[in-house]
Amino acid sequence: MPQDRNTGKSSVFKTRCDKEHKASLKCVEDNYGSPDSGSICRAFFVSYKQCRKAEHAAILKARNPDNIF
């Protein structure tokens, strides 16, 4: 696990998209070695990516509420 360079403690990846993240990883694990695992798991990847984009936009808006996104 990566370590925080300031404290030396293990860093933790925090996101509100934990459900989508776990679902995409589970799909990859369940379909590991399958020649079409990318297409099988595409819906999970898209869902996670959309969640992360929305989360990022919310963070940016919270930092600067006057900015239009």
TrEMBL record:
Keywords: Disulfide bond
Organism domain of life: Eukaryota
CHCH domain sequence ranges: 17-53
Keyword Transmembrane attached: no
Cytoplasm keyword on record: no
Pfam families cross-referenced by the UniProt entry: CHCH (PF06747)
Xref: InterPro entries: CHCH, Cys_alpha_HP_mot_SF
UniProt protein name: CHCH domain-containing protein
Species, as recorded: Triparma retinervis
